[in-house]
Write a structure and sequence with these properties.
The chain has 168 residues and is α+β, with helices and mostly antiparallel strands. It is 14% helix and 32% strand. It has helices spanning 59-71, 134-143; strands spanning 20-29, 35-40, 45-46, 49-51, 81-90, 93-103, 117-123, 155-158. The strands form 2 sheets. A 5-stranded mixed beta sheet has the order 4-1-6-5-8, with helices on both faces. A hairpin with a 2-residue loop joins β5 (81-90) and β6 (93-103). The radius of gyration is 19 Å and the shape is globular. The N and C termini lie far apart (70 Å).
């Protein structure tokens, strides 16, 4: 008598149809309270950041990697506070952006991707340039709503901190 082996449901092994992009934007704040912004060749100003690679990369690890790749600044995952998840849509694709904060005592950001960014500048919060890249504006406005930064609509989900609370 032939026995059939149990079948594994294909639902667990088949990837879903791509409907979303997951990224992280990193507010880097120095000891003087300034934030690091890069001038993209398109004309917008943006925070360091980019896509989160598939597992095993965590959001904090992606923030560390993107910061190092884009600016040459090095921090550890323990120094990254992920404080919100933002959700909007572009061209019918859900865009999920994780908002992160890193505080550094000092540092010189280098242009490591000159095909994308022409300069990195430490910018006082009362002198933010325009236009800001939409996800960067959304992250900054979530972090500091008192700044009145204009941005496209976005759904915001505050994340509960396991460690110290993120304070502006």
């Amino acid at each position: 008598m032939e026995t059939k082996s149990p079948t594994v449901p294909s639902r667990n092994s088949r990837p879903p149809q791509a409907q979303a992009a997951l990224g992280v934007g990193v507010i880097v704040q120095d000891a003087r309270g300034r934030v690091l912004l890069g001038r993209h060749h398109s004309g917008t100003w943006e925070l360091p950041g980019g896509k989160v690679d598939p597992l095993p990369e965590s959001v904090a690890a992606a923030a560390v990697r993107e910061l190092r790749e884009e600016t040459g600044l090095t921090v550890t995952e323990d120094e990254v506070s992920v404080f919100a998840m933002l959700h909007d849509a572009v061209a019918g694709i859900n865009r999920v952006t994780m908002a992160a904060l890193v505080r550094v005592g000092s540092g010189t950001a280098r242009v490591t991707e000159p095909h994308l960014i022409s300069t990195w500048e430490w910018t006082p919060l009362d002198a933010l340039p325009a236009p800001l890249f939409d996800p960067s504006a959304q992250i900054l406005a979530t972090w500091r709503p008192d700044l009145g930064i204009p941005h496209p609509p976005v759904h915001r989900l505050a994340l509960a901190a396991e460690g110290p609370q993120v304070k502006p």
